[in-house]
Amino acid sequence: MPVWFAYALTFIALGQVMVSFHQGPFDHLYLALAEYKEISENIEENEGGLDKFSKSYKTFGVNLFVDGGIYCKEWAPGAEAVFLTGDFSKYSKIASVFYFPECILKSLYFVLQLVIRNRSGEILYRISPWAKYVIREEGKVNYDWMHWEPPLPYLSRHPSPEKPKSLRIYESHVGIASPEGKIASYKNFTYNVLPRIKDLGYNCIQLMAIMEHAYYASFGYQITSFFAASSRYGTPDDLKELIDVAHSMGITVLLDVVHSHASKNSEDGLNKFDGTDSCFFHSGPKGMHRLWDSRLFDYSNWEVLRFLLSNLRSWIEEYSFDGFRFDGVTSMIYHNHGIGESFSGDYHEYFGLHVDEDALVYLMLANHMIKFLQPRCLTIAEEVSGMPALCCPVAEGGGGFDYRMAMAIPDKWIQIIKELKDEDWNMGNIVYTLTNRRHEEKYIAYAESHDQALVGDKTLAFRLMDAEMYTNMSVLSPLTPVIDRGIQLHKMIRLITHALGGEGYLNFMGNEFGHPEWLDFPRKGNNESYHYARRQFHLADEQHLRYRFLNAFDRDMNKLEERFGWLASPPGFVSEKHESNKVIAFERANLIFIFNFHPSKSYVDYRLGVETAGKYPFLLLLYLSEILSFNRLEYKCKLKGKNTFLFMQNKLTFYVDDHFKKMQLET
Ligand SMILES: *[C@@H]1O[C@H](CO)[C@@H](O)[C@H](O)[C@H]1NC(C)=O
Ligand SMILES: *[C@@H]1O[C@H](CO)[C@@H](O)[C@H](O)[C@H]1NC(C)=O
Ligand SMILES: *[C@@H]1O[C@H](CO)[C@@H](O)[C@H](O)[C@H]1NC(C)=O
Ligand SMILES: CC(=O)N[C@H]1CO[C@H](CO)[C@@H](O)[C@@H]1O
Questions:
Q1: From CA 625, how far away is CA 622, in angstroms rounded?
Q2: Any atom of ligand 4 within 6 Å of the Cβ of 482
Q3: Is 327 an active-site residue?
Q4: Ligand whose nearest atom lies closest to the CA of 190
Q5: Residue of the CA atom closest to atom 4 of ligand 4
Q6: What residues form the catalytic site here (predicted)?
Q7: Side-chain half-sphere of 127: how many Cα atoms within 13 Å?
């Protein structure tokens, strides 16, 4: 049967919804909530509700309908005329656009292009903002928009896992996820990397650089096609398979979503889509991020809301993502994008006219919609200022996120390692950084993320061990003081961050085994080299290299958490932060953690107070010794009712004295 073809091009120029309030510094939450309610009501009235509104990805752009017709719909308020062209019209310009040879339509794979005539009569070629698949042919500069409709699309077989109580996130980038100096594929990730992640005890992956970005070296943060899964790693079906296989392993999959800004490309990006400099963005300087050199969305615009909300929904419904890590939330919610700001915690810094209410309301709508659609979904805010209530429910005027990134922690570790001698580490300051969080809001703790791995910065392992990583990591050569200290501190920093720093934990791929060197994507400045755009997983598998100890530690740490669930427990109770002894001790989830950060001192009969009074006879912590591979862990003791978890640079021994309700440390 011939494919019946319908051609419908709709221009939408709905009135922009503008709500503005005069506000005092502390009315902010109330006003954001009022604006949120007003916009929700408007959506209800004009669009038949958020559910229908956010389904627009099924009608905008080019879509195949059940009647076999292909429909096209775009919002281009600044255009004088919009046309569709492509393979089927042999790219003859505007006049023949309406001629569609049947043979091409039947193929289900064809190249499309929008032709926009702007008000000065200029003819511009564009990719639909709603394009679901874009590819770049070898040697070409720009992407092409492909209609991709496989006859037998991938069907997911595994249900999504339950929302995890303890979130242990493996931050991943598909393209670099192999030791080869080239772009790895979705399939490589599915079959080579997912099993590693599962084995390491992570229950969540956060996928970076999925939304299509023409510039690979942007690390996925300069998005050109918001609805398209990057084709440089494979087809949309390959990504669906990746997620399905992750689900089969009980792994939750989050998308690192970039709604804070957009690439300034216009031929294959969103910029100047309708020929004007506004459309999806603010016009003029307000629409440019001066550090990122990219475009900024106008969150007060009705069609921008439709676009972004539908975008989130399409990732959930088309690909089965289980939630999002929202990138650049600080940049979204402040008019100055947080550039050059430091936040001390004074409430005036968070509320007032410098806050972008429109962006806050967008985030509230997004979080409400995501959880309404899929209660299993979770969201994380990358937010550095500490905006209060961002992780409180929308109904209470909060931002509606589940978690925020504890961004002060990695900065603190870097500062300590860079600036302080071991004798000068401040225990009180470490504890403060790891425990300073907003009551009732959940944090993802991390010692380092992709940020520290990028060229120009340094990972913890590289800061600690540097050049010796090239020469002294073999077990066949003697353990040098630098490697010894580096390995111990790398483990201790990870564990104390994991156990005390938050309600979730995150690691960037490769850092579980102290990946050496840095990440650098091919770009002009490095002769387009892929040499540093890879992860050398084989280092962790080599029996003769000490990376495997770091790797095994990561697995044990996660498995231990899985067993005792400290991330899902109330924050730790710190019983000791001793400056001259350099000892930190705390209790969480019925475990006692004891860290000795002293570079040279060991302790015998160390006394510690414990939170709960009672008898604490010795018991052997044998099972810990079985599952833990710390080389300096004293795992010989167990306190009744408490599993004691000791970790140290140097030896620390303890025993319990029940008269004083104190615990002492013994070999
Ligand atoms: C039409 O597009 C051209 C090329 O981008 C631009 O120089 C011109 O200002 C646009 N005209 C209007 C009215 O936006
Ligand atoms: C990805 O997998 C393919 C086929 O399994 C293999 O040929 C290729 O070398 C792998 N590439 C990387 C970068 O691992
Ligand atoms: C890039 O290649 C050129 C010519 O081969 C060489 O002179 C230059 O040093 C290289 N730059 C880098 C960063 O490797
Ligand atoms: C024991 C050992 O192999 N030590 C080596 C560590 O690395 C330095 C160079 O960085 C060598 O000089 C040492 O011989």
A1: 5
A2: no
A3: yes
A4: 2
A5: 472
A6: 327, 382
A7: 29
Q: Which residue has the tokens 């669009």?
A: 47
Percent of the chain with pLDDT over 90: 62
Sequence letter at residue 328: G
State both tokens at 397. 């005027």
pLDDT single digits (tens) 634-653:
333 333 334 444 444 433 44
Mean pLDDT is lowest, of 119-123, 157-161, 376-380, 445-449, for 119-123
Structure tokens at 304: 């921008």
In which element (H, E) is residue 243 found? helix 236-248
Q: Which atom of ligand 2 is nearest to the CA of 182?
A: 13
Q: Please name the amino acid found at residue 229.
A: A
pLDDT tier, 106 (very low <50, low <70, confident <90, very high otherwise) = low
Q: How many angstroms separate the CA atoms of 372 and 160, rounded?
A: 16
Give me the domains of the chain, ranges plus CATH numbers.
3-14+46-148 (2.60.40.10)
Q: Report CA Rg, the chain.
A: 27
What is the token pair recorded at 113? 């292009």
pLDDT in tens, 199-238: 999 999 999 999 999 999 999 999 999 999 999 999 999 9
Retrieve residue 418's tokens.
């860079």
Residue 401 per-residue DSSP state:
-
Work out the angle between the directed axes of helices 357-373 and 28-47 (0-180°, nearest 10): 60
Q: What are 558-611's pLDDT values in tens digits? A: 988 998 899 999 999 998 899 998 888 888 887 778 787 888 776 655 666 665
CA atoms of 459 and 454, how far apart (whole Å):
8
Task: Find tokens 């892929």 and name the residue.
Answer: 530
Residue 434: how many CA atoms within 13 Å on its side-chain side?
A: 27
Angle at 342 between CA 337 and CA 346, to 5 degrees: 105
- Please report, as a single letter, which amino acid is at residue 224: T
- CA-CA distance, 374 to 362, in Å (whole number)? 18
In percent, the amount of the chain with pLDDT more than 70 equals 81
User: Tokens representing 230?
Assistant: 């990057």
Please state whether the predicted TM-score (pTM) of the whole model is above 0.85: yes
Q: Is the dihedral of CA 474, 476, 478, 479 positive or negative?
A: positive
Q: Is the CB of 527 under 6 A from ligand 3?
A: yes
583 Cα: distance to centroid of ligand 4 (angstroms):
31
